[in-house]
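REQUEST ID: PR-0412
SUBMITTED BY: lab tech R.K.
PRIORITY: routine
TASK: structure prediction, single protein chain
INPUT:
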Amino acid sequence: MKVRLFFCLLTLLIVSTLMASPVHARLPLPEDSHRGNISPETPLLLTPGEFTIYFQDQYHMRTSAIYDASDFYLMIITPPGWTNIYASCVVFYPNYIQSTTFSNKYLGNSGIYRNGPYRFEPGDPEGQYTFRVTLRYIDATLVTRESQNTGFLQFSRTRPYPYPTPRPPYPPYPPYPPYPPTPATIITFLASPTIIRAGETATLTWNVADATTISITPEIGNVQSTGSITVTPVLTTTYTLSASNYTGSATSRSVSITVEPLAPIPTPTPPPPPIPYPTPAPVPITTVDSNWLIYLLLGILIVIIFAAVLISIVPRRPAPQTMPPSGVATSSYTPTTQTPTIPPAKLVLPDNNELPITGTTMPVGRSNFSKALPSDQLSYISRQQFQLSYENGRYYIEDLRSMNGTRVNGSEIRGAGKREIRNGDTIEMSNVTRLVFRTF
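STATUS: complete
OUTPUT:
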């Protein structure tokens, strides 16, 4: 414990001794204090522990004399490695200048510091003034030190201020030689792709140097020195890029885009001959709601009840008596009923599918073509479009009050009753499909 206390006391003694013995800087050399063209940034040869001061006039020139009504600056240059610098300045002989004194002014770290501007007061006498500057700082060994330096400034009020002699003007620079003319150059001009089909597009890309006017023909016109554009030529076309500049130099380059024709379009089947009378616009049939089955069953039930009532009210007629032929005994004669023979017939659809006709009466409607026609055509066909019937050895057709009508060989039969139909006649339903009537 005593040894540690001894070392602490020894350290404090050494530090206090170093702080009590200031290190004085050398006075500025005579050439450092005369007026001349020495910039304040001119490096000075300083040894460790030294700093220097000098003066600048209002033109920022180093000087040792100042004149009346003129500003001056106090310059302080510190060596490297100093930190936390505080400066104090006192002015002596022949008079004390209050405006130029300062105490504990913080300057920061090592560098060049300008203080001012200062000016002598009207009552200050002429003569040589002494400026004493004291710096307190921390050196590179982290020890707080103090140093002084003195500068001298001659003040005169009788002589005029010697303004600096103006510098003669610099001689004019010789003119630059003219640049050699540079021709316009087309670096790239490309088309991608070079072969297209009719209706497709291609891209033109270019890059031009040293040109003032650039254009592409045909149809495009003036463009920038670098860019791209999309074109859609109808026929095989050659595009030409032209470039020129102020020297009269001109150049051009061309690319071709080949346009191949599209594949031939198949010749459509000629439409049927036009119908001489106006065709009414098809009216789509509204879809029955989801309760149609209930409504259908109720309707069938009502029809059955109504038919039963009629049968019970209307008296039955006695069956006709069939007389036997002459010469035949009445007890041995049995009457026979002859069923007429119906020749076979059919309806041929556009896709050659066949719809056979059965019975003496056959209604034809939407359900007969549900698998042969698309749904958008089925919506124009009525649930019962027309009816075919066989009477007295002939076939007849009758429109069943369809929504969009029925035509036979181009003639409208809606509302015209029965009409005879023969082999090879065409039947058009609602202007959406055509059938052919055939007999075997």
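NOTES: The first helix runs from residue 2 to 20.
REVIEWED BY: pending
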